[in-house]
């Protein structure tokens, strides 16, 4: 069902200018807005591809890893001069795939541009329209939400009544981890970097306590204040100094889920972790994980989160920036803590 | 069945002079030989205690932790001016316990002295004499052997054909880990610090390969040479630079058993661990453990090891120093890699 479009249209896109090198910090100028022509008929008969109009694009910290020329990761680097890729919510506007028709709403990996050709639409997931905001499909119901779900239930082995600490707690992943932990009957404290975020954690996201790590001269003392009895589970989104402080405050048989190391990615902390000997003293398990290893749980994740969201037991905070041209600034802001909640770019409403 | 001994006899003992402080390295002079009087009748009727003559004493790295004034560990610090305690093999020479009679051979925590009063003999285990050297009850069949057994089978989740790296591989724990891994069908490489140890690893202990880390200018390159396909299991006895190098050479879903951090205890490495981000990239699990959490497996450990030892499938290398007066030097030697194999002090043969 490929339609014919004679006219080429303009297609704004964000490209990566060149690889980041060691010591070269990510800046808005690492990326560039370009305008190309896009031909809807790029989906030729037999190609099996689809053309999508991108509605919402996701800014996720892992993407910075793709801006380096490092082949050893779980995902290949971006190609300099080419469009940046990431998770998005899109609308099918042309299709040669039997599984997608024009008008379908989909989520999956797309380009940071107005229109994208998806050559392998099998990686797209169709969105059944319901009462849930579309943009949540790159947040609460997307990769970050699933990261929180798999990380908390599968990696942290939580038990009711346990003491849970979440760093970057108002972020795309952390805010859901905290809520899942509360639903599970845990005591939950989060850290974040502004008073606005602390207020959200305590008054909107249901954390028992929250603190602004930037106002704590000594993170070890801060954790001792909030966890006089110690930490059973540390859901680590930042690495660095906070990880070192958490290590000395863990309880026996504590678990650390290593989800992200934003502090390391921004190169602001290169001292290394000093307190790993605590792993032995307290018999701690520390596990790095990726949500992609748990995809068999994805259906139950969607069911659980959608059900709890509709019952009002889970909320989700987004930081929505309007316009593709603002995507580079929004992305850079992730690493300075500028975003409040899950960072999303709205390219078009429909 | 307390016997009367009118005479007090001399009792040589090694005492801790004072706590080690940060930056104060362990030296022989941190300890001191003293001669006390010992009265066999110290075991009074109704006390339930036993008096033992100590035959073999064990030098174990964890003991250094007890020489610091740090209360937060899994075992309390020694008392300055008092005798050093550790695992030993001893002979009961007086008893008020219904479970032990004179002449029984026992193993458990005793003092670094010729004769000890054991107030709580329930912590002692009786040794059934067989063809196994008595001193092995503080090594192969003692805490280090059980550490290797529990650490390898329970913490590393080994699978046949996996690639296993062991540091401090000729030590009390490492040498058994390597042999267990070989029995399990793994490929095993060990690191150690002298050519004599490398020779033992390759020609006596059955490691597939071994290398002298002191002769490697770049540990990362050394590991890439021995594990071109990467490491599935790293049994870490040292921490520090070797851990950092192993982290970047782990395979996806690799496991690191954190058993000891001798490098940290000797304060020779304070740079901190840089490469923990590999935990995420490779989805690695890193687990600190203590053998004491696995005591339910102790009977099957003894049965398995004794059986394999008697069949000649497991060997064990000891470094035996004669005389209690040489205990401080032997203990200090653990932290400079002087010992070849499990370090034991022979106080008396029987």
Automatic annotation (TrEMBL), chains A, B:
Alphabetical list of Pfam families matching this protein: ADH_N_2, ADH_zinc_N
Transmembrane segments: none
Transmembrane recorded as keyword: no
Keyword entries, A-Z: Oxidoreductase
One term of GO molecular function: oxidoreductase activity, acting on the CH-CH group of donors, NAD or NADP as acceptor
Keyword Oxidoreductase: yes
CDD domains associated with the record: double_bond_reductase_like
Chain ranges of the Enoyl reductase (ER) domain: 49-345
SMART domains xrefs: PKS_ER (SM00829)
PANTHER family (UniProt xref): PROSTAGLANDIN REDUCTASE, ZINC-BINDING DEHYDROGENASE FAMILY PROTEIN
Protein name, UniProt field: Enoyl reductase (ER) domain-containing protein
Organism for this UniProt entry: Kingdonia uniflora
